[in-house]
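Moderator note: this is an archived Q&A kept for reference. The question asked for a predicted structure of one protein chain; the sequence and the answer are reproduced below.
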Amino acid sequence: MNAELVLPRKLVNQVLTHAQQNEHTEACGLISTSDGNPAHYYAVKNIAADPSTHFEMEPEQQIAAMKRMREHGEDLLAIVHSHPESPPLPSATDMQEAGYPHAYYIIVSLNTRGVLEMRGYKIANGDMQPVDMHYEHED
């Protein structure tokens, strides 16, 4: 699998800011696409019983985000969450709960000094395979 995900710097900054604002919990959200281009980041509250090691999107906020996507003619591009204390690698739970086979999965790690690490994955052959991620610099 040789997938590639290109995100505008503005969206990347929104994702990273959201992760940093929730440094002790797994921040989560959705990225939409419009006409094949990444469009918006929708931050969603994490309501997991232990949000420091797991994420569960607040259902009403997740439904509202999906509804806004439909209203704007957007589709789901990626599901995002952060790992406060571990590398940006999918956990067994992440793989088990990945329910959108067409979406990318983006994990942000806050477990680095000074530099946040963000990696993308796609489900293939029953596993999460890494994808090349690139960032567009906007003028």
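Archived answer notes: Helices lie at 9-21, 59-71, 92-96.
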